[in-house]
Amino acid sequence: MSKNTLTVTVAGENSLIVYLSTKTDPMIAAKIQRMTEALRVNLKSCLIDLIPSYASILVIYNPLLTDHFAVSKSIYAAAQLADKANEGAFETAGGALVKLPVYYDVESGPDLAGLAVNAGLTVEQVIAIHQSVEYRVYAIGFAPGFAYLGEVDERIAASRLATPRQKVPKGAVAIADRQTAVYPAVSPGGWNLIGLCPTLMFDPSKEPSMPVKTGDRVVFEAISREEFIDLGGQLNDFEGQQ
Known about the structure:
- The protein has 242 residues and is α+β, with helices and mostly antiparallel strands.
- The protein folds into two domains: 3-92, Gyrase A, domain 2; 97-230, Cyclophilin (Beta Barrel).
- The chain has six helices and 13 strands.
- α1 (26-43) packs across α2 (68-84).
């Protein structure tokens, strides 16, 4: 990656944001991951935090130990390292593979039937398609443990709800456009709900506190109602939801 294809912008008195692209795809996501790893090694104790996203990295550093100029040099060095790696490996490798169980059903996913109708598919086909993709964790945000996963098969991509729900249950598996996610806690939300996952997506008492991190790969696996309950899942009445 040359300097002409990478933009570094001042984001604060002790932070820089690195933009690698204006688009999102697995190759860019893999470069983000590789650069993040290199920056952790290069900056070491000078680093306060790294926040990778779809096509950018926010670098927050200790201004008592370094400055914008030194950090910028580390960023460009990390970019060169990323370019030296095999491009093909970026698309398929990198990050842990995490399997998340899902109880798919109209009982656990109130938008599942409607999404199927709008897509011209059966409920069973929607479930099969959702499971068939290996998703990449592009970013974590909105709430602790809320991982944005992409990309959803175009056949089951669905626009956000016109009116967001006031209460989406913890563990709700959802689709919005070509993204999918698991709600880590009860919260408002406008994504299409298709099932429930019993895995805790955020537990501050554990280390690490989340089962996934940016750059990881996620696959969903269907489980029965009984398996869902045995794994600690709780069914919801979707109070206050359409």
